[in-house]
C-alpha cells in the first residue's frame, strides 16, 4: 500500500501534522492488511511532522535509518536517529544506500557518493550498519517494472544485499506475539 495510490499521480503531498496522522490512521485501521508479522512504514528523511506524528502515535518496534554516504544526507540521517532516540523508538541500525556503482561493461567500482560516511556515522551514534545497497541499474529497472529485484532476480547480488538487511533487521526486532 502506498500514499501514491490515494492521490493523483502528479499531485504533491503537502500535508501537516493532523492531515498526516489522519492518512496514517486510515492506512493502519482501514486497509485490510491480512495477518502481518511486521508492518514497515517508509518515511521521508528528516524530523518533521510526518516522523514526529508517526513516532508519537503508533507503537514502533524499531527504526532503520537509510542514507547515502554523502555529507548532506548524513546530516539528515543523524538528525533522524537522534529524533527517534528522543521519542524512545529504538534505532535498529543504519543502511548505506547507493554505496557503490559497478560499471556494467568493465566492472570498475566507483563510490559516487563517498565510501565511509554511513560507517563513520554508525560509529558516532554507536549503531550497527545493517547492510549496503549498491547503485545498480537492475534495482531501478525491476522496481519500475513492478517486479522488484528480490522477486525477479532473487539470486542476484542486489537481491542478496536486501535479504541480508532484512535478516539483520529481523534479528534486532522483538518476536511478534503468536
List keywords for this structure.
single chain; 178 residues; 7 helices; 43% helix
Provide an overview of this structure.
By secondary structure, the chain is α/β, with parallel strands linked by helices. The chain has helices at residues 17-30, 49-57, 71-86, 117-125, 137-144, 149-152, 157-172, and strands spanning 63-67, 91-102, 109-110, 129-135. Strands 1, 2, 3 and 4 form a four-stranded mixed β-sheet that branches. Strand 2 (91-102) and strand 3 (109-110) form a beta hairpin. The radius of gyration is 17 Å and the shape is globular. The two termini are 24 Å apart. The mean pLDDT is 89.
Are there runs of 5+ residues with pLDDT below 50, and where?
none
Class from helix and strand fractions: alpha/beta
The run of helices and strands is: HHEHEEHEHHH
Sheet having the most strands: 4 strands, mixed
Number of distinct helices: 7
List the helices and strands and how they pair.
Layout: H1 17-30, H2 49-57, E1 63-67, H3 71-86, E2 91-102, E3 109-110, H4 117-125, E4 129-135, H5 137-144, H6 149-152, H7 157-172
Parallel strand pairs: 1-2, 2-4
Antiparallel strand pairs: 2-3
Helix pairs in contact: 1-2, 3-4
Short description:
With 178 residues, the protein is an alpha/beta fold. It contains seven helices and four strands, in the order ααβαββαβααα. Strands 1, 2, 3 and 4 form a four-stranded mixed beta sheet that branches.
Amino acid at each position: 500500500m502506498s500514499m501514491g495510490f490515494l492521490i493523483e499521480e502528479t499531485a504533491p503531498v503537502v500535508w501537516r501534522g493532523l492531515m498526516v496522522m489522519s492518512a496514517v490512521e486510515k492506512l493502519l485501521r482501514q486497509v485490510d492488511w491480512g495477518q502481518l508479522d511486521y508492518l514497515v512504514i517508509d518515511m521521508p528523511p528528516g524530523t518533521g511532522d510526518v516522523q514526529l506524528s508517526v513516532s508519537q502515535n503508533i507503537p514502533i518496534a524499531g527504526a532503520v535509518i537509510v542514507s547515502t554516504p554523502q555529507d548532506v544526507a548524513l546530516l539528515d540521517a543523524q538528525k533522524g536517529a537522534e529524533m527517534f532516540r528522543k521519542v524512545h523508538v529504538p534505532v535498529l541500525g543504519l543502511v548505506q544506500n547507493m554505496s557503490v556503482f559497478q560499471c556494467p561493461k568493465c566492472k570498475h567500482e566507483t563510490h559516487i557518493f563517498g565510501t565511509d560516511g554511513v560507517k563513520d556515522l554508525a560509529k558516532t551514534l554507536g549503531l550497527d550498519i545493517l547492510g549496503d545497497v549498491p547503485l545498480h541499474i537492475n534495482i531501478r529497472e525491476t522496481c519500475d517494472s513492478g517486479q522488484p529485484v528480490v522477486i525477479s532476480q532473487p539470486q542476484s547480488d542486489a537481491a542478496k544485499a536486501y535479504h541480508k538487511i532484512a535478516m539483520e533487521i529481523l534479528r534486532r526486532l522483538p518476536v511478534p506475539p503468536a
